[in-house]
Amino acid sequence: MTQKHVLLPVPDAAVRDGANSRKVFIKTYGCQMNVYDSGRMADALARDGYQPTEDMQEADLVLLNTCHIREKAAEKVYSALGRLRDMKKQRAAEGREFMIGVTGCVAQAEGEEILRRAPSVDVVVGPQTYHRLPEALRRAKGGERVVETDYAIEDKFEYLPDTDKAKIRARGVTAFLTVQEGCDKFCTFCVVPYTRGSEVSRPVSQIVDEAMKLVDGGVREITLLGQNVNAWHGAGPKGEEWSLGDLLYRLAAIPGLARLRYTTSHPRDMDDRLIEAHRDLRTLMPYLHLPVQSGSDRILKAMNRRHTAAEYLSLIERIRSMRPDIAMSGDFIVGFPGETDADFEDTLRVVEAVRYAQAFSFKYSTRPGTPGAELDDQVPEAVKAERLERLQALLLKQQHEFAESCVGKVIDLLLEKPGRMPGQLIGRSPWLQSVNVDAKTSRIGDIISVRITGTGPNSLFAEVA
Ligand code: SAH
Ligand code: SF4
Ligand code: F3S
User: Fold this and answer.
1) How far apart are CA 290 and CA 267, in angstroms?
2) Burial of 185 by CB count in 10 Å (0-12 exposed, 13-18 middle, 19+ buried)?
3) Which residues are listed for [4Fe-4S] cluster 2 binding in this entry (predicted)?
4) 73 and 198 share a domain?
5) Is the per-residue pLDDT at 16 higher than 70?
6) Does any domain span residue 155?
7) Are 267 and 194 in the same domain?
8) Lowest-pLDDT range, 5-9, 133-137, 332-336?
9) Using one digit for the tens of pLDDT, what is the confidence trace for 19-47?
10) Which terminus in the chain has less CB density within 10 A, N or C?
């Protein structure tokens, strides 16, 4: 249910003119959803007179937008907070204000504990309540240490996106748009259902409206985001149930929107409508991030993924029969409790069968509070390390093979930013590869036809076709 709130006040003239302007530095960890959230926090704070800065030294407020997915990610936050504590002391000696906030998934998971471990932190705000950040900061200025990690009853999306064209343009020609949040899947290794809460889909009208404003501001490519993006569902114009496929058809009709992507998908929610969208929509890029995590049915079951390796492979076959040029991407975890050599070999077999263009792989990290943490039979670190090395070598080989297979092809390139050399621009291929091209007469935001001429370690080279 949505409870209406008064919009935040427009800053007064002095603040707008910069006479009283304060600066915020936001450090983003974790996934694209955090990148999107950082943008919305910057929007909310701008209405309160904070200008974003890339230089921490000139900041009056530092926000760490954190990730809790693996132990390392969470620990990074505490080491950053240690450095910030020293900065705060120095500022205090100079008589200058300096505030520290922790937002995102560590904030949600640890709440009060952060204040205990890091006494210099002023505010802790979870991902469902970041729209309350300006208010939390006002309270903190009054001497309170604020923790806001309740699930808000009001809809944070209702008053966040900044539709100022100049600001949208300044952020570039590609944009993220969160359409779904949270997760009800409860994979036994994962913290997301606890940090982001249960699955919520944004309504169609809100999404279409935000997409149109982005396009109006010069955005050419939109990536729809969700922890479980293909579980998105909503009501169509006649009240009929829409799935992500339907939403993509609707968004593809927005004039000026050249490219659509979405991430991250779960194999169980890859329905026919979504696969048809890949067949029918030229706007929908032929790239799919579809994590499998493991190739062993036994481990998949223990992970609560609720599908088998064979089901995953036949799903990909079906998708490829509809969109033969689709590039596959995935996530893998090695060393889940109980994983044997034979289980790991099953994972390698799935990788061999799929031929990934891109992939991300991790050692299993025990997360307190998840069912996986309770399991016996944890895999020794050295075994995890050895498996990860083998898996990554295979994935890297496939990534190079995919890049090599592009050489000689003529493809569309969306130009995103200047390259290192004068006259050089960097763009993205339909398959999300970074491509360098000499294109003196083209501009950022153009989609041009190029011929791939070679491959580098992390990018491709091309000439105008
Ligand atoms: N919703 C997505 C994944 C989101 S988390 C999905 O269902 O696939 C991003 C990735 O982090 C996961 O795909 C997984 O590979 C990795 N990950 C999540 N929890 C992890 C853990 N405890 N240890 C190691 N990797 C983990
Ligand atoms: Fe985590 Fe599984 Fe949900 Fe993905 S589907 S966010 S891995 S619980
Ligand atoms: Fe990390 Fe939270 Fe994203 S745990 S991966 S920032 S949803």
Assistant:
1) 6
2) middle
3) 183, 187, 190
4) no
5) no
6) no
7) yes
8) 5-9
9) 468 999 999 999 999 999 999 999 999 98
10) N
User: What distance in Å separates the CA atoms of residue 300 and residue 150, rounded to the nearest whole number?
Assistant: 32
Is the Cβ–Cβ distance between 291 and 246 less than 8 Å? no
Protein residues with CB under 6 Å of any ligand 3 atom: 30-31, 33-34, 67-69, 104-105, 191-192, 195-196, 227
- How many angstroms separate the CA atoms of 3 and 152, rounded? 10
Q: Which tokens belong to 276?
A: 């048809």
Residues 391 and 415 in one domain: no
- Among the atoms of ligand 1, which is closest to the Cα of residue 363? 24
Q: What pTM was computed for the model?
A: 0.93
What integer pLDDT is reported at residue 407 of this predicted model?
Answer: 98
- Kindly list the protein residues whose Cβ atom lies closer than 6 A to any atom of ligand 1: 69-70, 189-190, 192, 227-228, 264, 266, 291, 293, 331, 333, 362, 364-365, 367
Per-residue pLDDT, 20: 60
Dmax (CA) of the chain:
67
The answer as to whether 323 is a domain residue is yes
pLDDT in tens, 412-423: 999 999 998 888
Q: How far apart are CA 203 and CA 210, in angstroms?
A: 11
Asked if 227 and 196 count as a contact pair (C-beta separation under 8 A), the reply is yes
Same domain, 64 and 77: yes
Closest-lying ligand 1 atom to the alpha carbon of residue 191:
19
Is there a domain that residue 164 lies in?
no
| Residue range of the domain that includes 351 | 286-405
Among 378, 405, 432, which residue terminates a domain?
Answer: 405
Beta bridge partners of 332: 293, 361
Q: How far apart are CA 299 and CA 357, in angstroms?
A: 24
pLDDT tens column, 385-411: 999 999 999 999 999 999 999 999 999
- Quote the number of domains for the chain: 4
Q: Could you tell me the CATH number of the domain that includes residue 215?
A: 3.30.750.210
Specify the CATH number for the domain of residue 419: 2.40.50.140
* d(C-alpha 62, C-alpha 91), whole Å: 13
Q: What is the pLDDT of residue 14?
A: 38
**pLDDT tens, 150-203?**
877 677 777 666 778 888 888 899 999 999 999 999 999 999 999 999 999 999
What distance in Å separates the CA atoms of residue 76 and residue 283, rounded to the nearest whole number? 38
Structure-token pair, residue 208 = 């279409």
